[in-house]
Design brief:
The complex is a heterodimer. Chain A is α/β, with parallel strands linked by helices. Chain A is built from 4 helices and 5 strands. Chain A is globular and about 40 Å long. Classes of the chains: A alpha/beta, B alpha/beta. At the A-B interface, α1 and β5 of A face α4 of B.
Chain lengths: 118, 119
């Protein structure tokens, strides 16, 4: 088993990065690997509650983050500084996460086998 | 060393596809194995044989095909990313095949390093 980390750095809409990251995560889950998801920079917006995409004609895929638990993906990490800079706290997020300092995040990254950044 | 690559940027717009190719060619020249190049996001546009750059420019698609033919590199285009961008079997250049994201994860598992190109 390898340690896979998926780093999410972009807002959920505006680019396809968040969606195509999630698609890889769901596949990786079926390979029984040790998967972690990290949300940094605008990536923290991917987890914000109450997303409504009707006005921009895009599919709201945020409920999928809540389904990750069913795929045994429970390691979700959010960068503390990115969250604070955007006026968010854990109560604003769809799913339980661990909030990490940049230093703790760096240590976690150093411990991975494969890191994919989107 | 056994390497797998991921290319997630389209050709010509960004240098990432060129850098990925040059990295792969250099690694092979140094005796490493490039087991697979996985094309994701706009990287899927690296695979279409309809590509026709001006004659005095490099042909990114044909360059990949030649690399695959000479070194048995597995060029895999992500099916989900490809279909939503109009890339299908009938437009694939030689050496490319369409398959699932499992091939990316498989590359990450089997290779000593998975190296990514493009944001």
């Amino acid at each position: 088993m390898k340690k896979f980390m998926f780093v999410n750095r972009k807002a959920p809409y505006g680019t396809i990065h968040a969606l195509e990251s999630l698609e890889v995560v769901l596949i990786a889950a079926t390979f029984d690997q040790d998967c972690s998801l990290v949300f940094i920079d605008d990536g923290v917006y991917e987890l914000v509650k109450g997303q409504n995409t009707k006005a921009i004609g895009m599919k709201n895929f945020s409920p999928t983050y809540r389904a990750l638990e069913g795929y045994d993906i429970e390691k979700l990490y959010v960068d503390e500084e990115s969250m604070q800079a955007r006026g968010l706290d854990e109560d604003d997020l769809l799913v339980p996460v661990q909030v990490l300092s940049a230093a703790a995040m760096a240590a976690l990254m150093a411990d991975q086998d494969v890191i994919l950044s989107f | 060393m056994k390497l797998a690559l991921m290319v997630s940027a389209g050709p010509y717009t960004y240098q990432a596809a060129d850098t990925a190719y040059q990295f792969a060619a250099a690694a092979i020249a140094r005796g490493h194995e490039v087991m697979r190049v996985f094309f994701y996001h706009d990287g899927v546009y690296n695979s279409t044989r309809l590509t026709e750059p001006p004659q005095d420019d490099r042909h990114i698609v044909n360059r990949w095909s030649a690399l695959a033919a000479e070194n048995k590199v597995d060029l895999v285009v992500c099916v989900a990313a490809a279909l939503r961008r109009g890339i299908k079997d009938e437009v694939l250049a030689p050496g490319f095949r369409i398959s699932g994201l499992g091939q990316l994860v498989d590359g990450g598992i089997k290779a000593d390093r998975l190296v990514t190109f493009g944001a």
